[in-house]
Amino acid sequence: MGQYNVQEAKTRLSELLNLVERGEDVVIAKAGRPVARLVKIERPHKRELGFLGPLHIPDNFYEPWTDDEMGIEG
Fold this sequence. Notes:
It comes from Arthrobacter nitrophenolicus. It is a single chain. The protein is an alpha+beta fold. It has helices at residues 6-11, 13-21, 67-70; strands at residues 2-5, 26-30, 33-38. It is 26% helix and 20% strand. Strand 2 (26-30) and strand 3 form a beta hairpin. It is rod-shaped and about 80 Å long. It starts with a strand and ends with a helix.
């Protein structure tokens, strides 16, 4: 992990980003005190659809509801 003051970080930003891409942490200091850290951002994994597996849909799923199921008193 390297530490760089603000002015040096400004002039060497592209180089510091290359270090970060290779997995190194870079600390930016102000007046010799660390104030920020540059770290590589890991890209999120691509989500896979269908992770729940097959769903069972009852045969009567598409049938209209009865009055009793809809709460209508008759």
